[in-house]
Amino acid sequence: MSEIRSEILNTGIAELKSARIVINAPAAKIFDIIARPALHPKIDGTNSVKSVNWGPDRLSLEAKFGMRMKIGIRYKITNIVVEFQDNQLIAWRHLGRWVWRYELRELSSNQTEVTESFDGRPSPLQWWLKARGSYSYVEKALAKTLVRLKKYAENGN
Question: pTM value?
Fold first, then answer.
């Protein structure tokens, strides 16, 4: 059996990183996984999302949710959903203002192309993102997240 991989995309914009994968599941099922913060630790390719601190069971436009995180140190972060089209698009940001975005395109009734992006352009903290090497790191994290999302959507784990 071959290793599951996602495709890292060249956006041509240094502050915008994206990856894409095809998942053998309906868009609605995949979107439901992404829209449920409680499932984020299961699909997070960075292993930094530890648990949901608070928020709704399912996200919607302008929904706020808190996550327990660990990148070196433990901390809590509040996110707000800034883009939302059911079964097609969801994006959120936190106080750093960079955006995590998922775009779903149904290829058939049981196959969906998912693109995940990290958009650092809205952030006033460019110096911090660059000093931490965030842009090169996040590119790999997106790819890992999509592989984990595919496994979870197709197999439930």
Answer: 0.94
**pLDDT for the residue 132:** 86
Structural domain for 39, as ranges: 7-155
The full DSSP string for the chain is: -PPP--EEE--S-TTEEEEEEEESS-HHHHHHHHT-GGGHHHH-TTS-EEEEEE--SS--TT-EEEEEEEESEEEEEEEEEEEEETTTEEEEE-TT--EEEEEEEEEETTEEEEEEEEE-TT-S-HHHHHHTTHHHHHHHHHHHHHHHHHHHHHH--
Number of structural domains found in the chain: 1
Q: Does the residue 92 lie in any domain?
A: yes
> pLDDT band for position 157 (50/70/90)?
low
